[in-house]
Design brief:
The protein contains four helices and eleven strands; from the N terminus they run βββαβαββββαβββα. With 194 residues, it is an alpha+beta fold. The strands form two sheets. Strands 1, 2, 3, 4, 7, 8, 9, 10 and 11 form a nine-stranded mixed beta sheet that branches. Strands 5-6 form a two-stranded antiparallel sheet. Strand 2 and strand 3 form a beta hairpin. The model has no long low-confidence stretch (mean pLDDT 91).
């Protein structure tokens, strides 16, 4: 039997699991969007994060994508409060200390303009006197709330966090709450990545 590989655009305020959480029994879950049996998320996105999730029933691939030894790239578009300095971007690129852990080097660049994302519901808080800036961070590791902790560590708290890509797979052509199966070519690229 062939394995299933799905891409899903997780909306804000949705849990990255199929069953409800005991502390938030009314929260939306993957089950509210994906009617496919026996697939499981590869990694997680926090409830207050949005973006690309990969789901599969291929246990071997799921393990390799989740195991830190295989460090595949994940790109996040991050809206931060303030206007990060070049020194702050250099700190992010070299790695920062968060909770007694030094993050691995990553790619951190300022986006030249706001990315073409749908509005978030609810919208982020807006402060007239404080600008916001969009960054693209590409990491090869994934600790709990790592991106948020990294931007806070250099003085620029995260306001909105969207995982744009996992390797060469992107959110392109998906709207929040939509999912689709990977093409044969995408499956081949995914296997080559791990």
């Amino acid at each position: 039997m062939a394995h299933q590989y799905l891409l899903f655009y997780k909306p804000y305020n949705v849990l990255s699991q199929f069953s409800p959480a005991s502390d938030t029994p009314t929260a939306l879950t993957l089950k509210d969007f994906i009617p496919v049996a026996e697939v499981y998320p590869v990694g997680r996105l926090d409830r207050d994060s949005e973006g690309l999730m990969l789901l599969t029933d291929d246990g071997r691939l799921q393990h390799r994508l989740s195991d830190p030894r295989y460090g595949h790239p994940r790109t996040y578009w991050v809206q931060v409060e303030g206007d990060p300095t070049p020194a702050a971007l250099t700190q992010l690129q070299r790695g920062v200390v968060i909770r007694d852990y030094r993050t691995h080097p990553c790619k951190a660049v300022r986006l030249p303009e706001e990315p073409p994302l749908p509005p978030r519901n609810p919208p982020i808080r807006y402060r007239q006197a404080i600008p916001t800036t969009w960054l693209a961070l590409t990491l090869r590791e994934g600790k709990n709330r790592q991106v948020r902790r990294m931007t806070a560590a250099v003085g620029y708290p995260t306001l909105r966090l969207v995982r744009w890509a996992i390797g060469s797979l992107t959110l392109d052509a998906l709207a929040p709450g939509q999912w689709r199966s990977l093409t044969a070519a995408e499956c081949q690229r995914l296997r080559a990545m791990v």
